[in-house]
Amino acid sequence: MIENAKNLFIISSVAGGGKSTLIDLLLRKHNDILFSVSYTSREKRSGEKDGMNYHFVDRGRFESLIEVGFFYEWALVHDNYYGTPKDFIIKNLEDGHKIILDIDVQGARKVKESLPGATAIFILPPSKEVWIERLRKRGTENKEIQEKRIRNGLKELELQDSFDHKIINDDLHKAFVELENLIYPEVSVKIPEL
């Protein structure tokens, strides 16, 4: 049993919900928190770096890593594999580090089942309508992929109540302060009243 599961923070959202932006802000401000870089079988996108955004491996290599029990959790999402390396999580929790996992709802459920002391946080868009509009305006996927992400996202939104905390990302500063307060309650920052 891992003693320091309370130092593991699982952050999930729908595609285009803003979790990557919030995580990036958190990592830039707090150099003591570690980010678990997931493995994926999908192709590297322009500007992504191996070992920073993801560990990019081909499908066969990913499947061989599954077979040897390399992953804490893994899932097939949008026809690509994604997984969290087990040794990184175990070693760094045992060493007392705080760790951020940026994973989908399936992965969040698996990690939470095996480490119930971890904190699961769901980042919500301001509304379904705003989220769908943001996703369509992003321009990073073709229409077919956008529609698939919307269908999947609507299912993910139905699971938000299974998370320990929900943060509505309607104001980036406010959402960041809420996230920071969950991870660093000892320095709790108040959001100024307007």
Please give a structural write-up:
- By secondary structure, the chain is an alpha/beta fold.
- It has a single domain (5-187), classed as Rossmann fold, CATH 3.40.50.
- Helices cover 40% and strands 21% of the residues.
- The protein contains 7 helices and 9 strands; from the N terminus they run βαβββαββαβαβααβα.
- The protein has a 5-stranded parallel β-sheet, sandwiched between helices. Strands 4-3-6-5 form a 4-stranded mixed β-sheet.
- β5 and β6 form a beta hairpin.
- α5 packs antiparallel against α6.
- The chain is globular and about 45 Å long.
- The model has no long low-confidence stretch (mean pLDDT 88).
Topology, element by element:
Layout lengths: L7 E6 L5 H11 L3 E3 L3 E2 L14 E2 L2 H9 L3 E7 L2 E6 H9 L3 E5 L2 H10 L4 E6 L3 H11 L4 H15 L7 E4 L3 H12 L11
Parallel strand pairs: 1-7, 1-8, 2-7, 3-4, 8-9
Antiparallel strand pairs: 3-6, 5-6
